[in-house]
């Protein structure tokens, strides 16, 4: 069990974490025809917008209530009302997802009360769903904002089925954590369909941020979980939550609809995927398809091939809690040691991380603890530490803005785990400096081997 420590520094020098409003906004981007709205200054929204555009390389719909100094002091009702009316009139969304920010949380705006007044003043907007979530950026982190937003979606968008209503035996709900990519969700959908199951994802970034070319422009999100699909989640046979961060949403869904659930701490690695396949076999009543068995066999072969590269290596990992646990567990199972683990916020999963200590800190803490390691694993903001320490960096997580295809990386399921073995194993292999005729003699001399004196000594 890892010991969890908090950084004692007075300020964050090189931040690892991203704020709650950014996490909440990304969750709303997984809904179809949705417009995320940040209740705060324009700068708050601009930061998240640039972050997502650089990572996903897609047009990102986001709006702001554009709070000024005066409106912040006097209260933001007029800004919220005007923003909702303007968005509903011009972009015609089905959902407006509203996230608070630090400036409006400090003021203490009663946004729930604001929304009731907006409903009273504008009955013509009754068809637009308004989902508000409190996400102050002076506490918590990205993962917390996502968790709160999804839990709120469950509370406001999922219908409670009538008493005695029949369940759809072939339908499952999947609540993915913020650490899963659109590529991961596509892989999970393929796995469910292989068992004859239809999956509803909440949120579903694979529909809205998977990098497709839409047939026509839309000012709101294109693809993702629709309002109708979300409303039907209460009729599903089972709910699968991925990541400890999704436990609250799964509990809320069960309390509202009585749909049973199971939380998977991770779906990277052999054992957790074996458990997932066993669950899907039980839900569907079908044996594992031959292609799934083949993928498992391929993963076993990849683990055998790759463990020579992983064995004996020490790795420093900096990531959000669920992503940290997933990649650290995977590295340990492959024979590596997690020598340094740094995260952004508190979570019950941190005690399970296979490391002596997990520090809730920043990238400066990460860099200090990473000295002498064989590999750094964090997002693109770790590249400066990699250059200074002369240690290779495996970019993992959000944001990854200096490499292509971050949204399509797959690291869940048997195939995703196999791909991760190859990706990281190749980084280790690229650092092996093979001797050449020009360097072999120098290497022997540096170790004092093969000299005439040593040969004579050995002969005597």
From TrEMBL:
Keyword match Iron: no
Q: Which GO terms describe its biological process?
A: protein-containing complex assembly
Q: Which family does it belong to?
A: Belongs to the NifD/NifK/NifE/NifN family.
**What positions does the domain Nitrogenase/oxidoreductase component occupy?**
19-428
Name the keywords, alphabetized.
Nitrogen fixation
Q: Which GO terms describe its molecular function?
A: nitrogenase activity
Can you tell which superkingdom this protein's organism belongs to?
Bacteria
What does it do? This protein may play a role in the biosynthesis of the prosthetic group of nitrogenase (FeMo cofactor).
Q: Which Pfam families match?
A: Oxidored_nitro (PF00148)
In Swiss-Prot or TrEMBL terms, this protein is called Nitrogenase iron-molybdenum cofactor biosynthesis protein NifN
- Please give the pathway this protein is involved in: Cofactor biosynthesis; Fe-Mo cofactor biosynthesis
